[in-house]
Design goal:
The structure holds two protein chains of two kinds. Chain A is 39% helix and 17% strand. Chain A is built from 14 helices and 17 strands. Chain A has a seven-stranded mixed sheet with strand order 4-10-9-8-7-5-6, with helices on both faces. A four-stranded antiparallel sheet of chain A has the order 13-14-17-16, with helices on one face. In chain A, helix 7 (183-192) links the parallel strand 7 and strand 8. The N and C termini of chain A lie far apart (44 Å). Chain B has a single domain (3-139), classed as Sufe protein. Chain: A, CATH 3.90.1010. The chains are: A alpha/beta, B alpha+beta.
Chain lengths: 406, 140
């Protein structure tokens, strides 16, 4: 079976519109993907038919919502092949997932003088929470650098991992360079020395089949909104023996077992980490996004997206002065570039006026900008609903703008 | 001409462009024509840092009026700087304090005024007002 892209596009009504009088071309799915009708309808259906607060009410609506909410936990468990449902924690996004781990893991396992290794290509969301934790605990952040072609210099891990190292934080797929990092190898190197690994899967989940047990990841985190799901929903997967030793991240309802003014005992996993009323409709609609992706077949989606990536890369390289950042063979989802003599802000602004949505700026990755000594960059990123024709139109637009701005 | 008059004039100039591309084409032209900022003034003291592009703004207070020079590394922003300088340079602090700068919005370039870390234009307008307040104190 091959993917019927024309049909798939019909599932995303937002794509069928004109902006500034030009047909919209959406090349910013790495920032947030558009959502298919089944996801939108599910959220609406919930509000119309059976919305109620979960886990609490002894009434019909609450029961219905609770069942569906917990069913998504099972779905996510199977989606990433986790061992048990207790290991799936719902958060509001990748950022919160990492903050949760940084705080709770830090409280349980990190002491003064300990070290956390963070790669140079991380999104700010996988740098800042570790820095905050390190500051609190008196720990140190150690940088694992990448080479100019976008390859992580993992051979340096042998030197960088010391007896003080507690954890490595690494992106599965880089949001700027597109590099698919060899996380399995990193994890096995880390585990050989008793070091834990958090994998930021935000940019990976819509493009790769992820098996957390096969990777042997200690923590794996991602967001729903980058894989055709709603905003405000994220996942934190963790190994049970770690999660059970980690203290809660936030206090409130749902995460408690018993509260008295003298002492509060905490709920079991996964609820220990889910304080307060969660994004109930978002989580349930996220289930539809996962089913949607599973029905499409993620391997086929990956193959198709790779075709888009290769095609666009070839076409981009025909443009004089083109500099692509991140040229690894193992690459996914995004191409980041600059054209000599043209400011990315100008290009991005003009592309927008031509109906093409791209990302410009520092891409929430200042260290990557500094690595290449660039003030900003342009990123195009693809999802299953993009087409080769769109890439052709984008390249035509780009050539026109190079003539205008160069 | 008053600040208001010049803003009106700019709005009229832009009104002949119906297409976005033409509007921006004109802005790019203005950006390319903007005189380069004296390298001595292109320093951190005059830098207004934005997420997407960098803008420099250098004031000089002479005979009761503030004269501005400016530049950006992005040509569209440079075009906006050129327009802004046309409106604000050579004005008394009082004029700058008492007038609202609404032309960017009027010519349909409001997106450049979004309160995010976009291109420093909002910061630039704020900086102009701050200079006006400061020089107003000096001169009174």
């Amino acid at each position: 079976m091959t993917l019927d892209i024309a049909n798939i596009r019909k599932d995303f009504p937002i794509l069928d519109q004109k902006v500034y009088n030009k047909p919209l071309i959406y090349f910013d799915s790495a920032a947030s993907s558009q959502k298919p009708l089944c996801v939108l309808k599910k959220e609406e259906q919930l509000h119309v038919e059976y919305y109620g607060n979960i886990h609490r009410g002894a009434h019909y609506l609450a029961d219905q919502a609770t069942n569906d909410y917990e069913a998504v936990r099972d779905l996510v468990k199977d989606f990433i092949h986790a061992k048990s449902r207790e290991q799936i924690i719902f958060t509001k996004g990748t950022t919160e997932s990492i903050n949760l781990v940084a705080f709770s893991y830090g409280e349980a396992f990190v002491a003064k003088g300990d070290e956390i290794i963070v790669t140079e290509m991380e999104h700010h969301a996988n740098i800042v929470p570790w820095q905050m934790m390190a500051e609190r605990k008196g720990a140190k952040i150690v940088k694992l650098p990448f080479a100019d072609d976008g390859r992580l210099e993992i051979e340096l891990l042998d030197q960088l991992i010391t007896e003080k190292t507690k954890l490595i934080a690494v992106a599965h797929v880089s949001n700027t360079l597109g590099t698919i990092n060899p996380v399995k190898e990193i994890i096995s190197k880390a585990h050989a020395k008793g070091v834990k690994v958090l994998v930021d899967g935000a940019q990976a989940m819509s493009h790769l089949k992820v098996d957390v047990q096969e990777l042997d990841a200690d923590f794996y985190v991602f967001s729903a909104h980058k894989i055709y799901g709603p905003n405000g929903v994220g996942i934190m997967y963790g190994k049970k023996e770690l999660l059970s030793q980690m203290p809660p991240y936030q206090g409130g309802g749902e995460m408690i077992s018993q509260v008295t003014f003298e002492k509060t005992t905490y709920n079991e996993l996964p609820y220990k980490f889910e304080a307060g009323t969660p994004h109930i409709t978002g989580v349930i609609a996220f289930g539809e996004a996962i089913r949607y992706l599973q029905n499409l077949n993620i391997e086929e989606v990956a193959t198709y997206e790779h075709q888009l990536l290769d095609y666009a890369t070839g076409k981009l390289l025909e443009i004089p002065g083109m500099q692509i950042y991140g040229t690894q063979k193992e690459k996914s989802g995004a191409i980041t570039f600059n054209i000599e003599g043209i400011h990315p802000f100008d290009l991005g602004t003009m592309l927008d006026k031509m109906g093409i949505a791209v990302r410009t700026g520092r891409l929430c990755a200042d260290p990557v900008m500094d690595h290449y000594q660039q003030p900003a960059m342009i990123r195009i990123s693809f999802a299953v609903y993009n087409t080769l024709e769109e890439i052709d139109q984008f390249i035509d637009a780009l050539k026109k703008l190079v003539a205008m701005l160069g | 001409m008053t600040i208001e008059n010049i803003q009106q004039e700019i709005v009229e100039e832009f009104s002949i462009y119906e297409d976005w591309m033409d509007k921006y084409g004109y802005l790019i032209e203005l950006g390319n024509d903007l005189k380069e900022l004296d390298p001595k003034l292109k320093n951190d003291q005059h830098l207004i840092k934005g997420c997407q592009s960098r803008v420099w703004l250098a004031p000089e207070f002479k005979d009761g009026k503030i004269y501005f020079q400016g530049e950006s590394d992005a040509v569209i922003v440079k075009g906006l700087v050129a327009l802004l300088l046309r409106v604000v340079s050579g004005r008394t602090p009082e004029e700058l304090i008492n007038n609202e700068l609404h032309f960017v919005d009027d010519i349909g370039l409001k997106q450049h005024l979004s309160p995010t870390r976009s291109n420093g234009l909002v910061a630039m307008i704020k900086q102009i007002k701050l200079y006006a307040v400061a020089y107003n104190k000096i001169s009174s």
